[in-house]
Amino acid sequence: MMENRFMRFLGGRNLIFTLCILILLGVLIFILEKISFIFEPFIIIFNTIIGPVILAFVLYYLLNPIVDFLERNRVKRLYGIILLFLLIISAFTVLITVLVPLIEQQIVSFASNFPDYMKHLLSKFNDLSSNSRISPYMHDLQKWVNTNLSDLPNKVGDYLGNFTTRLKSIIDTIASVAVIIMTFPFVLFFLLKDGKHFKQYFIRLFPPRYRSSLKEIIEKMNVQVGSYIQGQMIVASCIGVLLFIGYNIIGLEYALVLACTAAVTSVVPYLGPMIAISPAIIIALVDSPIMLLKLAVVWMAVQFLEGHFISPNIMGKTMQIHPLTIIFVLLSAGNMLGIVGVILGIPMYAILKVIVQFLYTKFKIRYNLYFQDQHGPYEVEKQ
Questions:
Q1: Of 295, 293, 297, 315, whose CA–CA distance to 306 is shortest?
Q2: CA-to-CA distance for 341 and 336, rounded, in angstroms?
Q3: Are 239 and 302 in contact (CB under 8 A)?
Q4: CB–CB of 363/10 below 8 Å?
Q5: Cα 74–75–81 angle (5° rounding)?
Q6: pTM of the predicted model, to two decimals?
Q7: 235, 315 in Cβ contact below 8 A?
Q8: Potential cystine with 375: which of 123, 158, 286, 379 (Cβ 3.0-4.6 Å)?
Q9: CA–CA dist 356, 333 (Å, integer)
Q10: Residue-wise pLDDT tens digits, 60-87
């Protein structure tokens, strides 16, 4: 009896069919791997369009609620999109005119002083390690630091000195970024204008019996990914503003650059703040121990506000992902796709989570139907 139930759980008469499908799928993957060169043109096309599409989708989730709000207030969707684009262009023009010169000045100053900062830190570290009380414990650490970091200023100088030899790669990168910047506004415009039609057209490509399920999956994906992107952008902006205010209060150098860096890296959960505080710690250490203490107070205050007030009210519980899962996803996605994987790892995981949860729910419904006999659907659990 138990064996019969176990076979029903695995699929009953469909078990052999399922195994055959898995075998054929494995053979198909093997064949595709052998003829992968056929797909190289498609990979090139995909790599060309993926940048503008991803950027357009990110901004779509940020701007679409505004366009919907204008449309609900009797502003035609096309006019609302044009008005929003004009406002964004005006805002960027003001920001570029006012902030870019300040950021450029601070970046150039920080880059020129960075070797001196590292030499100063290494000198302090060597003085600390020569202390008789802690020298036995610091010997190995000092050896590692001197081996790996003592030549860092010279390496930075050599890298900057050989900058012209890397000109080709830099030009290629700038060209790719320029193409993305020039093309994504058009993709974004049509996403905002015809996004609903695209979704309906995509759903109609599937047989009628699957359309309701597909619509449910897409709506859940929109909620998960949209809420994550909107929440992360708002939280990152709040962190940047709070840190800029705090850095200016304590008198930390390069406050604007450090705050902008923290805002950008805060898009990456958990790992971003650790990356953001590193340059601030270096500058504070070079300044004085008192400045390092002030930095710690500002950072703890901002993290407290973000963790107890900003994120809970903005992000809420929509993602429902455990922090440990987020860390594993970031590490895995970063190892596979680099910085792109770190940025897009959580949204991709949210999409996969929606699909898996939906399929698992369907599987549970089917599993319960296996035991719906004359004794009722849950007779097995009572026995």
A1: 315
A2: 7
A3: yes
A4: no
A5: 150
A6: 0.66
A7: yes
A8: 379
A9: 18
A10: 888 888 898 888 888 888 999 999 999 9
